[in-house]
Design goal:
Elements: H1 2-11, H2 27-50, H3 55-58, H4 61-76, H5 83-88, H6 97-100, H7 103-113, H8 117-142, H9 163-183, H10 188-204, H11 208-230, H12 234-253, H13 257-260, H14 267-283, H15 297-302, H16 324-351, H17 360-377, H18 385-402, H19 414-450, H20 456-469, H21 474-486, H22 492-512, H23 517-534, H24 537-554, H25 560-576, H26 581-598, H27 603-617
Helix pairs in contact: 1-2, 1-7, 2-7, 2-19, 4-16, 7-18, 8-9, 8-10, 9-10, 9-11, 9-17, 9-18, 11-12, 11-17, 14-16, 16-17, 19-20, 19-21, 20-22, 21-22, 22-23, 23-24, 23-25, 24-25, 25-26, 26-27
Length: 618
């Protein structure tokens, strides 16, 4: 009975990709993580209860390497530059170490709960149903079916919320579907159909990384099967080769320009290259232990190449390199980077140990291609909850296939059960209950923003609850508060209260994240807005102080978006100090002129310069 409950609890995690609750702040991320944590938390006592006492289990190199990887990541983050960010992360990504560590008990749960073929078949069939539901939703967005249509046009994202995240999930699931064609012969046609129908959905995401990963992996797969058939069925292998060539030629002619047009001058590629360059320079400051998990933004801002603005002029505040390898190198140093490479290489090594009576070579190949496609994809993107879900299923499944016949001896201990229940209560309260309530309160602030009967008092009360429940997320709250105050029709008194509220919580957040340039930029902008609102020279001067004395220590002096607002601050100051009005206007003008000379390609630089010039002339 306990074993069945264990399996059911872990099976519920498969529904993460289609779980969406709009009551969460950042629902496509946080809601899915809270879903994952809920079921892992409930299954945690069973994971601990079922952990074998037999030494042979713990002698497995597979187990040892995975545990060692998590220990190394844990140890490295003890030396993090911004430990709160490393441990808790933020609600935009929710990949702080305290949430990443949940994948370890998830892995152990899978290998302990599913140790027979029949059990794995049931588990993977349910996974296939979720994949099928995701594909149907993707097709619905592709063809604009009314039930599935969304106001976000172009790239499909299903219920995952991001086109690249969806592409990564479907890419890994595609190869797992092909594996099931051989592993689950009873439903091989269904598995093959799911794999085929997932390809248009992957292409509809317009993810270049997914397309490249899929194209290379499928080419290798095609060559393998041609060689495989050549031994016995030469005519079929020739036909397959011609079919592969035709598909390639027809496919290239019908692909989106996004897939066929690769250039170093492309905005997306150019910004990634600059981000990688900034990260590599920043890594050299902390080569061995890195800056700490989730701290890529610190070296990125410190060593930002301002050529990144010469494209579209978009404000660039990257928190990820959009390259998982660069992320691990910068955030974990050489030690973290090597640990991650070994972690990725581990399942490849164990593919050789998969011994099956039928189709072993095909299963090894397809599992390997799935892992290989994942490795390519991560060169241009990063892991997310949906990709990690499938990746750890890969790990557990490969462990099962390479350790078949291994029997676990359960050590039943009431002491172990009591300890696990105490651990469950503590973790549930601090890592699930309190953060989830805080997240709901932050969502409540957004709801108030759209409510016709909104009240500033409600926002003040919600902010106070968030600060008490989850003080580590005051940066997220400051950002939401700023957006709520700026983008709404509050009266002057309410705006004044709102901006002071932002100042209060952002100041607390800045003490947690001393080197976070984006947060200090928010504080400076808030002082500028507050000073403009109440005609306060003191607040305007505080904003100028932040722009010049703090932000410029953390990011290049002539960052366009910072210069725009610095010039705006001097312009506002000219209205408040008549004696030095011309001096401040001249400073503002010189800042914008210099900015235009540096970045003539950015339309905004010219527009702001002409606007100030017209004001001065009039």
């Amino acid at each position: 009975m306990k074993e069945k409950i264990f399996q059911y609890l872990l099976t519920f995690t498969l529904f993460i990709p289609i779980f969406l609750h709009l009551g969460f702040y950042q629902p496509y991320i946080t809601g899915k993580y809270f879903w994952l944590i809920f079921f892992i938390l409930i299954s945690l006592p069973l994971v601990i209860f079922y952990l074998p006492a037999k030494k042979d289990f713990w002698k497995s190199r597979f187990i040892q390497v995975i545990i060692l990887f998590f220990i190394i990541i844990l140890a490295i983050n003890l030396f993090s530059t911004d430990p709160i960010k490393s441990w808790w992360g933020d609600w935009q990504r929710m990949d702080g170490l305290l949430y990443f560590l949940w994948w370890l008990p998830f892995f152990f749960g899978l290998i302990l709960a599913f140790n027979k073929k029949k059990q794995w078949l049931k588990f993977l069939r349910i996974h296939q149903l979720v994949v099928l539901a995701t594909i149907i939703w993707s097709w619905g967005q592709m063809f604009n079916w009314s039930v599935f249509a969304d106001e976000k046009a172009g790239r499909v994202f299903a219920l995952i919320g991001n086109a690249n995240f969806l592409a990564h999930y479907l890419l890994l699931s595609f190869f797992l579907s092909l594996v099931l064609v051989y592993f689950d012969r009873r439903f091989k046609s269904i598995h093959f159909s799911i794999a085929i129908f997932s390809i248009p959905a992957i292409l509809a995401t317009q993810s270049r990384a997914a397309f490249l990963s899929l194209a290379i992996s499928l080419f290798i797969c095609g060559v393998y099967f041609i060689i495989h058939f050549w031994k016995k069925k030469r005519l079929q292998s020739i036909a397959l080769a011609f079919l592969l060539i035709i598909i390639i030629l027809v496919g290239i002619n019908n692909l989106s320009n996004r897939f066929t047009n690769y250039s170093f001058t492309d905005t997306t590629i150019e910004t990634r290259l600059v981000a990688w360059q900034s990260g590599f320079i920043g890594w050299q400051d902390k080569p061995f232990l890195g800056w700490g998990r989730n701290n890529f933004d610190i070296p990125f801002n410190k060593y930002l190449d301002l050529d990144i603005y010469k494209g579209s002029g978009t404000r660039m505040w990257f928190d990820k390199a959009h390259n998982q390898y660069v992320d691990y190198l910068v955030e974990g140093g050489v030690i973290g980077f090597l640990a991650y490479l070994i972690f990725l290489a581990l399942p490849f090594i164990y593919l050789k140990k998969i011994k099956l009576k039928r189709n072993a070579s095909q299963i090894r190949l397809l599992l390997g291609l799935g892992l290989f496609a994942n490795a390519i994809f991560l060169f241009f993107n990063f892991d997310t909850i949906v990709s990690l879900l499938v990746y750890f299923i890969y790990l557990a499944f490969i462990y099962y296939l390479s350790h078949r016949g291994q029997k676990f001896k359960i050590y039943k201990s009431y002491l172990r059960l009591i300890i696990s229940l105490i651990l469950f209560i503590i973790l549930a309260f601090f890592l699930f209950y309190k953060p989830m309530l805080a997240n709901w309160q932050l969502k409540n602030i957004q709801i108030i923003h759209h409510d016709q009967n909104r009240s500033m008092l409600q926002i003040v009360q919600s902010a106070d609850k968030i600060s008490k429940l989850a003080p580590a997320y005051q940066q997220d709250m400051s950002l939401v508060l700023m957006q709520t105050i700026v983008n709404d029709d509050w009266n002057l008194e309410e705006k004044y209260i709102g901006h002071n509220l932002v100042s209060f919580y952002a100041a607390q957040a800045s003490q947690q994240h001393l080197l976070n340039a984006k947060l200090h930029y928010l504080i400076a902008n808030n002082y500028l807005a507050l000073g403009t609102l109440n005609s306060s020279q003191d607040d305007i001067e505080k904003a100028i102080g932040y722009y010049q004395d703090i932000i410029f220590k953390l990011t290049p002096d002539y960052r366009p978006d910072v210069i725009y607002n610095l010039a705006q601050a001097y312009y506002q100051l000219s209205w408040l100090d008549e004696d030095r009005a011309q001096e401040y206007l001249q400073i503002a003008l010189e800042l914008l002129q210099d900015n235009y000379l540096r970045f003539p390609e950015i339309v905004e630089t010219e527009e702001k310069l002409k606007l100030l010039q017209s004001v001065i002339e009039n």
